[in-house]
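Side project, low priority. Logging it here so it doesn't get lost.
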Amino acid sequence: MNSSRPPFAGWIRSSNTITQQFLSIGGKPDIVSLAGGLPAAELYPVGAIRDATERALRRWGSSVLEYGPVEGLYALRETIAARTSAESGGKFLAANVMLMTGAMQGLDLVGKTLVDPGDLILAQVPTYLGALDAWRPRQPRYEKFDWNCERPGFDAALAQAKFAYVVPNYSNPTGALVPQPQRLALLDKVRASGTWLLEDDPYHSIHFDGDPGLDILESDARQFKGVYDGPVIYLGTLSKSIVPGLRVGWAIAAAGMIEKLALAKQSSDLSSSLFTQAIALELLESGFDLEHSRSINERYRERRDTLCSEAAARLGDWFEWEIPPGGMFVWMRARDPRIDTNELYKVALEEKVAFVPGSVFDPDGKDHSAMRVNFTRSSPEVIAEGVRRLEKAVKRYLHR
C-alpha cells in the first residue's frame, strides 16, 4: 500500500480478524470448524421461507421492495410489541420497537447513541467479541462485571458507566444461564444508578434443560402500569431461531431511546430490508419461529451431548467446562498452566480444526487460558472428528 496516503483510523490497530477468519474457515471442506456461532445450515427451513415469501408478496406487493421507514415495517413492530406484552405482562407499543439488520447492528447503534471516546462500559466478562468489535471505533473504557453486584466499587462503576452490557440467556461465549436473583439484583442497581442496561438475547429460544425464565426486560416491564419507559435496551434476532440470512433483528426500549437509535440508524443504512421484514412477519404471525425452535433444539441437544462426551474422553486431562443448558457454545478452561490458547489455535489450524481463543472475549485481550467451542453447526460425526483433531493439536502443542 502507498505509504504516502493518509493512515487508517487509530481504532483499526486495536482490532482483531478472528471473526473474518472463522467465517472464512467455515467454507473450507478440509477444516472442521468448531469456531463460529452459526446455526446448522441443513436445518434451515427453506420450504417455510419460500411459502412465507410468496404470502408476503401477495400481501404487500411492491411496497416492501421500496425503501422503508428507518424504524422498520410497522406491522412487524406491532407484532413484536404485542408478543412481548403478552409474554411479560407489561405494555409495549410499536413505538418501543425498532427493526434492524440483525441484532449486531443494534450493538453498533447503541454505541453510536451513547458512547463518546473514553466513556465507561460495564461489561460481563468474558464478553461477546462482536460487541467489543462494534464499540471499538467509539474507543470506550471497560469495567469487567462478574454478576457480583455487591462487590466493593460496583455501585460507583455503574453510576459512571454509560450502560451495562449483559447476555444472561446462554451467554456468548460461556453458554451460562444467569439465575433470576442475579438478574433482578443487577436490575435494581441499574434503576438506582440511572444508567442503561443493554440486554443482548440471541439465544433465548435455544434451550435444552429447563426454561430460561423471565428476561430482564420482562421483569422490568412488570413494574410499569403504563407503556414501558424503563432503562433496559433489549436486542432480539431471528438469526439463531430461523436463519441468519433474513438479517432481521430488533431493539425494544423506551420510546425516547428508540427515537435516538433511529437517528443513529438513518446515517448507517437509511433503512433495513422491508422485504425480509415482511417475510419475518409471516413467520412470526403464524408462530412458525416457536415451532421451528422446538424442532431444532432436539438436534442441538444431541450435538451438545456429543461434544461434551467426546471432550470428556479426549480433552478432560487438559480442560474443564460446564455443560451448557442452552445456546451454542461450550467454554473450555485450561487446567494445565502451560496451555496458551492463542498459541494452541495456530497448532489446531495445522491439524485442520478451529476454535475461538478466549483472548478475543476479554476487553484487555489477556485471557489466554480458555477457548470457545461451537456445537450447533456440525453433525455429531463431524464434532467427534473435530475433538479428535483438537486432541492431536493439544498433544503436539505440549510436546513442543
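Brief comment: Residues 288-314 form the longest helix (27 residues).
Revisit when time allows.
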